[in-house]
Predict the 3D structure of the following.
Amino acid sequence: MGSMAPSVVFSPGELADALGALRASTPLVQVLTNTVVTNFTANVLLAAGASPAMADVPGEAGGFASVASAVLVNLGTPNSEQRAAMAEAVAAANAAGTGWVLDPVAVGSLRVRTDFALGLRDLTPTVIRGNASEIMVLAEAGSGGRGVEATDTVDSAAAAARALALRSGAVVAVSGEADLVTDGTRTVYVHGGSKMLTLVTGGGCALGAICAAFLPVVKDPLLAAVAAHAFYSAAAERAAAASSGPGSFAVHFLDALHALSPADLAATAVLS
Ligand SMILES: Nc1ncnc2c1ncn2[C@@H]1O[C@H](COP(=O)(O)OP(=O)(O)O)[C@@H](O)[C@H]1O
Ligand SMILES: Cc1ncsc1CCOP(=O)(O)O
Ligand SMILES: [Mg+2]
């Protein structure tokens, strides 16, 4: 896969320890996200063992970011108030040395959010997470997908993802059938998961929140993002096996995020 040979850089034990550390510390994740997925994202964080706080009001967002364990900035429905709050939160997170995740939902054809996303890209996000088309736009190597959906493959975005990581200093994660996570030098593919995640709104957006939840619990942001994707994929696989369609999948997914143990993660994760 990809133009450069990927390598396994993390052991099952490292993934298990990361999940154990998350559960032991209950990270406080500040979420500035879109109106479609807010409730689902909070439930995903709670089920995983984190503590969500949707603090996205100007005047509050900066103060909250200075005490949060990590911050998610998701551009799905970026009204002007929320954009002001995001600017505050990012400045405060950077001042406090707090990790933050940028999810540039639907960048490309939507000018306001694309311009805003390109500005955020250059404000040292710790992780940039998106689908292949979104990542290609932030790398200035594509014109975007179809609304919130990707029209490019993960492999076609691999070179752009590495270039974006080197340019921004962020770990870049590209979701798809197999997820690619890179810091520009090391590249890891996370296999597994379920296509059902694409039939529940927030399947990608809540993954950004889980990336944020892992940031404060491990030193290496690449390991944090890989552990987040492996954990998410393992839970999705378990949920898909128990469900009969998108509705029951969403319920089983929350149950699986809650039930999955560090040992389960170590036994299930497939990296390459
Ligand atoms: N074809 C697929 N098979 C299995 N899992 C998938 C597939 N496509 C996407 N996923 C998973 O769905 C989640 C959301 O990814 P994606 O749909 O690419 O994000 P977004 O919603 O931001 O476009 C990720 O966990 C990803 O691994
Ligand atoms: C449907 C929709 N419209 C604006 S944001 C949004 C949610 C997108 O969620 P995801 O990127 O996780 O599929
Ligand atoms: Mg998305």
Summary: Residues 28 and 51 are 5 Å apart (CA to CA). DSSP finds eleven helices and eight strands in the chain.
